[in-house]
Amino acid sequence: MIYQVASCQKPRIAFISLHSCPLGNLGAKDTGGMSVYIREVAVQLAGMGYHVDIFTRKHEPHGGGIIPLAGGARLIHLDAGEQCETTEKISLYPHIDTFIQEIQKFARRQKEQYGLVFSHYWLSGVAGGQLARDWGVGHMVMFHTLAAVKNNLRVGNPEPQLRLKGEKAVVHSCQKIITATQRERQSISLLYDAPPEKISVVTCGVNMSLFKPRLDGQLRKELAVDDRRIILYVGRIEPLKGPHLLLEALALLKHRQDWCCLIVGGDQSSNEEIGHLKEQAIRSGIGERLVFAGLVSQEKLPAYYSAADLLAVPSFYESFGLVALEALACGCPVVASDVGDLKNIITPGMSGDIVEKLTGADLAAKIVNWINRPARTVEETGAIRKTVERFGWDNVAGELAKEIDSLCPQAARAV
Ligand code: UDP
Question: Is a pLDDT exceeding 90 seen at residue 65?
Fold first, then answer.
């Protein structure tokens, strides 16, 4: 059979994001880095000429319809079970078939042909695998988190067998797995017996034009923190991210009056966890030193990272850890546990520190090193930002495009 390069038209890619909407409330219980990733990558790929349709479930307040995203990517909400924002992810499993049928109906109605399916998280992987088989195209998957890794850590509730089995089936049936770190690649090989050659590492990114230093000091004035040092936490409020460990560390610093702690993230879907943290803070005598800011939009986050003296990332597990990149892009140092790829990103003593053994005492010791320093200078801020300049989403999409093209030889047609 002879192949020749036909038109240069890029393929249409179906992104599957069943449980989490790329336009959802970031920092709520189940909406965070994955939504940011999908939105940023879809827009970048669309800017490179790919056509991207992102499928997610209908949920309040998005009742349906097609929402155009910048760059020509589209977000499509379709039926898949309950529409409330805070549904437990696992309860969507019985609705996967409905979701698949809705996507197929949409594709038929719109006369769209997809050249590749790119699924996010295991529930989407189950749906995406079926769609790819029906359409006779390749299936690329990014899990974002893995049940086996979570369960090995024994933090929070264990993940159900259903998820473990589902992940394993997707790992073995798909054509390509994308991970954001080498560490995650090894975990998938080891814990799910995945052939290493099936897994490609493509790092995550940061929006460098949005996340940049704000030198006006406005937020410090608004928060009336005077010259107290600000220790910042940004993220979903859940045990795996270790906010309780941060409070344990801060309790060891309660004799010092020169700091306060801002906790960003969490809405009513995280009320129970926030309640536990508030009780812990009061019990350990630091209740007055914490500010729970709730959800903060990404547009406003640069002011928080710029005002902070450090971002604490006390997580037990991160598949990448976007907030660390965002803080560094704003010139804010990051004190983090050894998760994701942060060890390769943070320069110890210059742009932050890694806490090797994740205990309250070790975390406190590293935090003290940073709050004992004079406030950072404009030059230091600029130097920290420089360390992450290579992480623009355009670079991430460029690397992903190579993976997409290798699975999707749309330009090569049999004649
Ligand atoms: N985020 C936000 N507002 C909040 C809390 C978090 O916009 O109140 C965003 C944050 O900017 C980051 C994402 O949510 O882009 C969290 O991603 P990360 O990789 O750190 O954690 P994940 O949610 O994937 O576990």
Answer: no
